[in-house]
Design goal:
single chain; alpha/beta; 2 domains; seven-stranded mixed β-sheet; five-stranded parallel β-sheet
Length: 296
Protein backbone atom coordinates (compact mmCIF):
# COMPACT_ATOMS: atom_id res chain seq x y z
CA UNK A 1 0.00 0.00 0.00
CA UNK A 2 1.09 3.54 -0.75
CA UNK A 3 1.31 6.25 1.90
CA UNK A 4 1.44 10.02 1.34
CA UNK A 5 2.97 12.33 3.92
CA UNK A 6 2.72 16.09 3.25
CA UNK A 7 5.74 17.92 4.71
CA UNK A 8 5.93 21.09 2.62
CA UNK A 9 5.02 23.64 5.31
CA UNK A 10 7.24 26.28 6.87
CA UNK A 11 6.42 25.55 10.51
CA UNK A 12 6.11 29.25 11.35
CA UNK A 13 4.97 28.54 14.90
CA UNK A 14 8.31 26.89 15.64
CA UNK A 15 10.43 29.70 14.25
CA UNK A 16 13.25 30.66 14.41
CA UNK A 17 14.29 26.99 14.60
CA UNK A 18 12.32 25.98 11.49
CA UNK A 19 13.99 28.67 9.42
CA UNK A 20 16.92 26.27 9.19
CA UNK A 21 15.26 22.93 10.05
CA UNK A 22 12.26 21.43 8.26
CA UNK A 23 9.52 21.13 10.88
CA UNK A 24 8.96 17.42 10.23
CA UNK A 25 12.61 16.85 11.19
CA UNK A 26 12.24 18.59 14.53
CA UNK A 27 13.35 16.16 17.25
CA UNK A 28 11.04 14.90 19.98
CA UNK A 29 12.08 12.14 22.37
CA UNK A 30 15.34 11.82 20.48
CA UNK A 31 13.92 11.25 16.99
CA UNK A 32 12.62 13.55 14.25
CA UNK A 33 8.83 13.63 14.03
CA UNK A 34 9.04 12.17 10.53
CA UNK A 35 11.00 9.18 11.80
CA UNK A 36 8.34 8.45 14.41
CA UNK A 37 5.76 8.44 11.59
CA UNK A 38 7.80 6.30 9.20
CA UNK A 39 8.57 3.78 11.94
CA UNK A 40 4.85 3.25 12.45
CA UNK A 41 4.33 2.70 8.72
CA UNK A 42 7.17 0.20 8.57
CA UNK A 43 5.51 -1.74 11.40
CA UNK A 44 2.53 -2.42 9.12
CA UNK A 45 4.72 -3.17 6.09
CA UNK A 46 4.04 0.07 4.23
CA UNK A 47 7.24 0.73 2.33
CA UNK A 48 5.99 2.80 -0.62
CA UNK A 49 5.98 6.37 0.70
CA UNK A 50 5.48 9.63 -1.19
CA UNK A 51 6.55 12.82 0.56
CA UNK A 52 5.14 16.16 -0.56
CA UNK A 53 8.01 18.56 0.01
CA UNK A 54 8.54 22.30 -0.20
CA UNK A 55 10.31 24.39 2.43
CA UNK A 56 13.76 22.86 3.04
CA UNK A 57 12.76 19.86 0.97
CA UNK A 58 16.36 18.82 0.38
CA UNK A 59 16.68 18.16 4.11
CA UNK A 60 13.80 15.67 3.83
CA UNK A 61 15.42 13.95 0.86
CA UNK A 62 18.70 13.68 2.72
CA UNK A 63 17.07 12.36 5.87
CA UNK A 64 15.27 9.60 3.99
CA UNK A 65 18.54 8.23 2.65
CA UNK A 66 19.11 6.54 6.01
CA UNK A 67 16.21 4.10 5.52
CA UNK A 68 16.82 0.79 3.77
CA UNK A 69 14.17 -1.13 1.82
CA UNK A 70 11.74 1.79 1.57
CA UNK A 71 10.64 3.12 -1.80
CA UNK A 72 10.53 6.89 -1.31
CA UNK A 73 9.31 9.33 -3.92
CA UNK A 74 9.33 13.11 -3.57
CA UNK A 75 6.96 15.63 -5.14
CA UNK A 76 7.53 19.35 -4.68
CA UNK A 77 4.56 21.58 -3.95
CA UNK A 78 5.73 24.81 -5.58
CA UNK A 79 2.51 26.69 -4.78
CA UNK A 80 0.89 26.69 -1.34
CA UNK A 81 -2.68 26.02 -2.45
CA UNK A 82 -3.83 23.92 0.48
CA UNK A 83 -3.72 20.38 1.79
CA UNK A 84 -6.07 19.07 -0.87
CA UNK A 85 -3.77 20.35 -3.60
CA UNK A 86 -0.73 18.90 -1.84
CA UNK A 87 -2.26 15.44 -1.56
CA UNK A 88 -3.38 15.44 -5.20
CA UNK A 89 0.26 15.85 -6.24
CA UNK A 90 1.03 12.47 -4.69
CA UNK A 91 -1.93 10.48 -6.04
CA UNK A 92 -1.68 7.97 -8.87
CA UNK A 93 -4.24 7.10 -11.55
CA UNK A 94 -5.39 3.91 -9.88
CA UNK A 95 -8.20 2.52 -7.79
CA UNK A 96 -5.67 1.20 -5.28
CA UNK A 97 -6.00 2.47 -1.70
CA UNK A 98 -3.82 5.12 -0.11
CA UNK A 99 -2.96 6.05 3.46
CA UNK A 100 -2.47 9.76 4.16
CA UNK A 101 -0.67 10.83 7.33
CA UNK A 102 0.00 14.48 8.15
CA UNK A 103 3.60 15.24 9.05
CA UNK A 104 3.22 17.32 12.21
CA UNK A 105 1.81 14.81 14.72
CA UNK A 106 2.64 11.39 16.10
CA UNK A 107 -0.58 9.39 16.06
CA UNK A 108 -1.20 6.36 18.23
CA UNK A 109 -3.71 3.81 16.94
CA UNK A 110 -4.00 0.29 15.61
CA UNK A 111 -2.59 1.03 12.16
CA UNK A 112 -3.21 -2.47 10.86
CA UNK A 113 -6.87 -2.36 11.81
CA UNK A 114 -7.17 1.14 10.35
CA UNK A 115 -5.86 0.17 6.92
CA UNK A 116 -7.87 -3.06 6.86
CA UNK A 117 -11.21 -1.24 6.64
CA UNK A 118 -13.59 -2.21 3.82
CA UNK A 119 -14.53 1.46 3.42
CA UNK A 120 -12.57 4.68 3.46
CA UNK A 121 -11.86 5.61 7.06
CA UNK A 122 -10.99 8.91 8.70
CA UNK A 123 -9.09 9.06 11.98
CA UNK A 124 -11.00 11.08 14.58
CA UNK A 125 -10.79 12.03 18.21
CA UNK A 126 -13.22 13.80 20.53
CA UNK A 127 -12.11 17.36 21.28
CA UNK A 128 -13.40 20.08 23.63
CA UNK A 129 -13.11 22.82 20.98
CA UNK A 130 -14.44 21.35 17.72
CA UNK A 131 -14.76 24.75 16.04
CA UNK A 132 -10.96 24.66 15.59
CA UNK A 133 -10.97 21.44 13.56
CA UNK A 134 -12.46 19.63 10.63
CA UNK A 135 -15.48 17.88 12.14
CA UNK A 136 -17.35 14.74 11.04
CA UNK A 137 -21.00 13.93 11.60
CA UNK A 138 -22.16 10.34 11.84
CA UNK A 139 -25.35 8.45 11.08
CA UNK A 140 -25.45 4.72 11.79
CA UNK A 141 -21.65 4.65 12.09
CA UNK A 142 -21.20 6.21 8.64
CA UNK A 143 -19.83 9.69 8.05
CA UNK A 144 -22.54 11.82 6.44
CA UNK A 145 -20.74 15.18 6.46
CA UNK A 146 -17.30 16.69 6.94
CA UNK A 147 -17.05 20.39 7.77
CA UNK A 148 -13.86 22.44 8.13
CA UNK A 149 -13.83 24.53 11.33
CA UNK A 150 -17.61 25.00 11.65
CA UNK A 151 -18.84 28.03 13.58
CA UNK A 152 -21.55 25.89 15.21
CA UNK A 153 -20.30 22.29 15.35
CA UNK A 154 -22.88 19.53 15.49
CA UNK A 155 -20.28 17.00 16.63
CA UNK A 156 -17.12 16.87 18.75
CA UNK A 157 -15.39 14.28 16.54
CA UNK A 158 -12.41 16.03 14.99
CA UNK A 159 -10.33 14.86 12.05
CA UNK A 160 -6.94 14.18 13.50
CA UNK A 161 -4.55 13.88 10.56
CA UNK A 162 -4.76 10.31 9.25
CA UNK A 163 -6.97 9.12 6.39
CA UNK A 164 -7.39 5.75 4.68
CA UNK A 165 -8.96 6.10 1.23
CA UNK A 166 -9.98 2.98 -0.67
CA UNK A 167 -9.56 4.53 -4.14
CA UNK A 168 -6.96 7.06 -5.21
CA UNK A 169 -9.05 7.81 -8.30
CA UNK A 170 -12.08 8.74 -6.19
CA UNK A 171 -10.03 11.10 -4.06
CA UNK A 172 -8.37 12.62 -7.10
CA UNK A 173 -11.77 13.25 -8.67
CA UNK A 174 -12.97 14.96 -5.50
CA UNK A 175 -9.96 17.27 -5.37
CA UNK A 176 -10.14 17.91 -9.11
CA UNK A 177 -13.76 19.04 -8.70
CA UNK A 178 -12.63 21.59 -6.13
CA UNK A 179 -9.87 22.95 -8.34
CA UNK A 180 -11.92 22.96 -11.55
CA UNK A 181 -14.68 24.91 -9.79
CA UNK A 182 -12.42 27.11 -7.61
CA UNK A 183 -14.04 25.80 -4.43
CA UNK A 184 -11.89 27.04 -1.57
CA UNK A 185 -12.16 27.33 2.19
CA UNK A 186 -9.96 29.95 3.81
CA UNK A 187 -8.54 30.56 0.32
CA UNK A 188 -7.19 27.01 0.03
CA UNK A 189 -8.25 23.72 -1.51
CA UNK A 190 -9.13 21.70 1.56
CA UNK A 191 -8.97 17.93 1.84
CA UNK A 192 -12.14 18.04 3.94
CA UNK A 193 -14.03 19.69 1.09
CA UNK A 194 -12.86 16.91 -1.23
CA UNK A 195 -14.24 14.37 1.24
CA UNK A 196 -17.58 16.21 1.14
CA UNK A 197 -17.64 15.94 -2.66
CA UNK A 198 -16.90 12.21 -2.38
CA UNK A 199 -19.70 11.73 0.17
CA UNK A 200 -22.12 13.48 -2.19
CA UNK A 201 -20.96 11.04 -4.89
CA UNK A 202 -21.89 8.11 -2.59
CA UNK A 203 -18.33 7.23 -1.58
CA UNK A 204 -18.64 5.55 1.82
CA UNK A 205 -16.65 6.78 4.83
CA UNK A 206 -16.42 5.48 8.38
CA UNK A 207 -14.84 7.03 11.46
CA UNK A 208 -11.99 5.42 13.38
CA UNK A 209 -11.34 6.84 16.85
CA UNK A 210 -7.60 6.91 17.49
CA UNK A 211 -5.95 6.37 20.85
CA UNK A 212 -3.90 9.56 21.05
CA UNK A 213 -2.62 12.48 19.01
CA UNK A 214 0.78 13.76 20.05
CA UNK A 215 0.93 17.11 18.31
CA UNK A 216 4.31 18.56 17.35
CA UNK A 217 3.24 21.77 15.64
CA UNK A 218 3.72 24.39 18.35
CA UNK A 219 6.24 24.72 21.21
CA UNK A 220 3.69 23.90 23.93
CA UNK A 221 2.68 20.60 22.36
CA UNK A 222 6.25 19.75 21.37
CA UNK A 223 7.16 19.84 25.07
CA UNK A 224 4.16 17.77 26.17
CA UNK A 225 4.82 15.19 23.44
CA UNK A 226 8.54 15.04 24.23
CA UNK A 227 7.84 14.46 27.92
CA UNK A 228 5.12 11.89 27.34
CA UNK A 229 7.25 9.77 25.01
CA UNK A 230 10.36 9.97 27.17
CA UNK A 231 8.39 9.06 30.29
CA UNK A 232 7.83 5.62 28.73
CA UNK A 233 11.54 4.88 28.50
CA UNK A 234 14.78 6.20 29.95
CA UNK A 235 13.49 9.73 30.70
CA UNK A 236 16.22 11.26 28.52
CA UNK A 237 17.54 10.82 24.99
CA UNK A 238 21.17 11.91 24.78
CA UNK A 239 23.40 11.62 21.74
CA UNK A 240 26.65 9.80 22.43
CA UNK A 241 28.68 12.83 21.33
CA UNK A 242 27.14 15.13 23.95
CA UNK A 243 29.24 16.28 26.90
CA UNK A 244 27.41 16.46 30.22
CA UNK A 245 29.21 17.43 33.43
CA UNK A 246 27.82 17.95 36.93
CA UNK A 247 24.25 18.32 35.66
CA UNK A 248 20.80 16.85 36.24
CA UNK A 249 18.48 16.15 33.30
CA UNK A 250 14.90 14.91 33.12
CA UNK A 251 12.77 14.48 29.96
CA UNK A 252 15.47 16.00 27.77
CA UNK A 253 16.32 15.36 24.11
CA UNK A 254 19.97 16.24 23.59
CA UNK A 255 21.35 16.23 20.03
CA UNK A 256 24.90 15.68 18.82
CA UNK A 257 27.78 17.90 19.91
CA UNK A 258 25.83 19.55 22.73
CA UNK A 259 27.54 20.62 25.96
CA UNK A 260 25.81 20.85 29.35
CA UNK A 261 27.80 21.89 32.43
CA UNK A 262 26.66 22.68 35.99
CA UNK A 263 23.01 22.85 34.96
CA UNK A 264 19.55 21.50 35.75
CA UNK A 265 17.39 20.83 32.68
CA UNK A 266 13.77 19.67 32.65
CA UNK A 267 11.92 18.91 29.41
CA UNK A 268 14.51 20.65 27.26
CA UNK A 269 15.19 19.97 23.57
CA UNK A 270 18.69 20.87 22.41
CA UNK A 271 19.47 21.02 18.71
CA UNK A 272 23.01 20.17 17.52
CA UNK A 273 25.87 22.23 18.91
CA UNK A 274 23.94 23.83 21.77
CA UNK A 275 25.84 24.80 24.91
CA UNK A 276 24.39 25.40 28.38
CA UNK A 277 26.52 26.35 31.39
CA UNK A 278 25.34 27.14 34.93
CA UNK A 279 21.63 27.22 34.13
CA UNK A 280 18.29 26.01 35.41
CA UNK A 281 16.01 25.59 32.39
CA UNK A 282 12.55 24.09 31.87
CA UNK A 283 10.39 23.71 28.76
CA UNK A 284 12.79 25.32 26.34
CA UNK A 285 14.26 24.69 22.89
CA UNK A 286 17.98 25.40 22.59
CA UNK A 287 18.72 26.20 18.96
CA UNK A 288 21.55 25.19 16.65
CA UNK A 289 24.90 26.19 18.21
CA UNK A 290 23.06 28.39 20.71
CA UNK A 291 25.05 29.22 23.85
CA UNK A 292 23.45 30.04 27.21
CA UNK A 293 26.10 30.75 29.81
CA UNK A 294 24.77 33.61 31.92
CA UNK A 295 24.77 33.09 35.70
CA UNK A 296 21.53 31.80 37.22
Amino acid sequence: MKAIIPVAGHGTRLEPHTLSLQKCLFPVAGKPVLQHIIDKLINVDIVDITLIIGHLGEQVRGFCEKFDNINFSFVEQTERLGLGHAIQLGLEATNDPVLIVLGDSILELDYFKFISSNTSSLGVKKVPDPERFGIVELSDDKIVSVIEKPAHPLSDLALIGIYFITSQNDLNNGIKHLIDNSIKTNDEYQLTDAFSIMINDKHEFSAFEIDDCLDCGVPETVFSTNKKLLSRGNLNSIDSSAIIENSKLAYCSIAKDCVIIDSILHNVIMLPGGRVVNQKIENKIIGFNQEIENPR
